[in-house]
Amino acid sequence: MSLSAIGQELSENDVPVAVRNSFYELYPNMFVYEWELEKKENVYEAEFMNKGIEMEAIFRPDGSYIGTEIDIKLEDMPPDVKKAFSHSEYAKWKLEDTEEFKKKEGEKLYIIEVEKKKKKVKLYYSKDGKLVNTK
Asked: Residue ranges of the Putative beta-lactamase-inhibitor-like PepSY-like domain (predicted)?
């Protein structure tokens, strides 16, 4: 899980205090098993498990919260997202990862990562199945 593919793993001590404080305010008593700095996006990611579900909280260097990615299965995505993806040019590509992204503001995006001949693409869909971004 991540907004971008170029990440540098960090020890907790190498993560800005503002980022760590923001994480533990949002998710008290959670253990972060991996901190990463995503250089391309200039964000910090805290990977953790919550009730058996892999999650990743994302923060700006000043500690401001961007949102949380949650691993989900393709079949658990909204029907309009599944339909839009199945009719897209990427439907025949190899499925790599699927996530729900909960933005700070409460809006949700659904991310489908696919791969074909070593080319990876992330598709960002709104709940109604509209493709809002591709990376």
From this structure: 43-132
Q: Which CATH class, in words, describes the domain spanning 72-135? A: alpha beta
In CATH, the architecture of 1-66 is Roll (3.10)
Confidence of residue 6 (pLDDT cuts 50, 70, 90): low
Helix, strand, coil in percent for the chain, rounding step 5: 20, 45, 35
| Within this chain, domains 1-66 and 72-135 share the same CATH topology | yes
Element counts in the chain: helices (H) and strands (E): 2, 9
Residues facing residue 121 across a β-bridge: 114
Average pLDDT (106-112) is: 95
- The pLDDT-based confidence of 2 (bands split at 50, 70, 90) is very low
Write down the domain spans for the chain: 1-66, 72-135
